[in-house]
Design goal:
This protein is an alpha+beta fold. It has two domains: 8-167, 2-Layer Sandwich (D-amino Acid Aminotransferase, Chain A, domain 1), CATH 3.30.470; 175-340, D-amino Acid Aminotransferase, subunit A, domain 2 (D-amino Acid Aminotransferase, Chain A, domain 2, Alpha-Beta Barrel), CATH 3.20.10.10. The protein is 24% helix and 31% strand. It is built from seven helices and 19 strands. The strands form two sheets. Strands 1, 2, 3, 4, 5, 6, 7, 8 and 19 form a nine-stranded mixed beta sheet that branches. Helix 4 links the parallel strand 9 (175-179) and strand 10. The radius of gyration is 21 Å and the shape is globular. The termini are close together. Bound molecules: pyridoxal-5'-phosphate. Pyridoxal-5'-phosphate (PLP) binds next to strand 12 and helix 5.
């Protein structure tokens, strides 16, 4: 990594790390000592700084709080056995961040600000990258509108922040999911392909209703006909039917996941037939019934692979093949993990060493 940015570094007086229990890391609640912050003002990114993780003050009229110009990313860094630290495919997240920014009329973040800001932050807090097997450092870059004005227009000013925190090993509990036939996560012409706060705010209520019925998550369908499968919860969704890997093709209602992309690349490299196309609810239900469905899982940075054990559809509950015996999802989860931790060859060049 070449440092070309002038980042002002203000270190914490004493680290919190000795008070942190790495055997108890509830997701998203434990933060490293420092954060990266930059301000967008008068058309430029300014005040690049690494500072202690702490509360910040913002104007209560900040337009992000009123009208939701807020976007984010989720990335992970891993410690290899030789002590080296790598970030998994951060350039993919960087590209997607600016796609989200464009849709929300927010300024693009320059590549060096995103990548060097993150790398320097992780270097400074490198002791926070866990060395316990299966654990990793979660990285949360985000941007929000700060202009104090209640008029509805794109803000003139923004903050870009990167937080990091150690995360526990993910022991996938197979999911019970419900195919959602009333509510929608996103609509055609909408913001489903952007990683923006509002998509999450809007998904909480239908998810809560499903959870009251005993489900863990929803499988979202298209908003017009509710006949096409789109995503599962906050992950992309994949199926194996008759040894073919099938996943909904990305479109403006679907987030283009880095995990999804990585799994498709691995499957193709292994010579497995892959279909990216529209997937109907009916064909999945039929494949479960006639026992040709071999695998069903969510794919995302947090979980990597989240097995789907049961699917609820129109009052019926279908039980899928036992997750422990599923070939593809278990193989690809291990392959991804081995690349990330430097155990397997990084043939695709996915690891960015800090
Ligand atoms: C973040 C996200 C995903 C997964 O993307 P990854 O890049 O694999 O982490 C899938 N769907 C939605 C809606 C998301 O927000």
């Amino acid at each position: 990594m070449i440092d070309t940015l002038n980042i002002q570094v203000n270190k914490i007086l004493s680290s919190k790390i000795s008070q942190t229990n790495f055997n108890d890391l509830p997701f998203g609640k434990v933060f490293s000592d420092h954060m990266f912050m930059a301000d967008y003002q008068e058309g430029e990114w300014k005040n690049l700084q690494i500072m202690p993780y702490a509360e910040i003050s913002i104007n209560p009229a900040a337009s992000a709080l009123q009208y939701g110009q807020a976007i984010f990313e989720g990335i992970k860094a891993f410690r290899h056995a030789n002590g080296k630290i790598s970030i998994f495919r951060p350039f993919k997240n960087f590209e997607r961040f600016n796609i989200s920014a464009e849709r929300m009329v927010m300024p693009a973040v320059p590549e060096e600000l995103f990548i060097q800001g993150m790398s320097q932050l992780i270097n400074l807090d490198k002791d926070w990258v866990p060395s316990i097997e299966g654990q990793s450092l979660y990285i949360r870059p985000f941007m929000f509108a700060t202009e104090p004005v209640l008029g509805v227009h794109a803000s003139e000013t923004y903050k870009f922040i990167i937080l990091t925190g150690p995360t526990a090993a993910y022991y996938p509990k197979p999911l019970k999911v419900k195919i959602e036939l009333n509510y929608a996560r996103s609509v055609e012409g909408g913001i489903g392909y952007a990683k923006t706060a509002g998509n999450y705010g809007g998904s909480l209520y239908p998810t809560k209703l499903a959870q009251k019925e005993g489900f863990d998550q929803l499988i979202w369908t298209d908003s017009k006909s509710h006949t096409f499968i789109e995503e599962s919860g906050t992950t992309n969704i994949m199926f194996v039917i008759n040894d073919v890997l099938i996943t909904p093709s990305t479109r403006d209602t679907i987030l283009d996941g880095v995990t999804r992309n990585s799994i498709l690349e691995l499957a193709r490299a292994w010579g497995m037939p892959v279909e990216e196309r529209r997937v109907t609810v009916l064909e999945i239900v039929n494949a479960i019934k006639n026992k040709t469905l071999q695998d069903a899982f969510g794919a995302g940075t947090a979980a990597t692979v989240a097995h789907i054990a049961q699917i609820g559809h129109e009052g019926e509950l279908y039980t899928l093949p036992d997750p422990t015996g599923r070939k593809f999802s278990n193989k690809v989860a291990k392959a991804l993990s081995d690349i990330r931790y430097g155990i397997a060859d990084d043939k695709f060049g996915w690891n960015y060493l800090v």
